[in-house]
Amino acid sequence: MNIAEVYQALEQLENGKDLIDAIKGETSRLNNEAKTTREKLQNQITTLTGERDTLSTRVSELEEQAGAGSNSPEYKQLEKQLKAMSDKFEQAETKAKEAEAKRIQSEIMAQTLDAFTKANAVDPQEFARLVANDIKVQDDGTYGYQKEDGTIGTIQDRTAEWLQGKSWAV
Question: Edge-to-edge strand order for the sheet containing 143-146?
Answer without folding.
Answer: 136-137, 143-146, 152-153
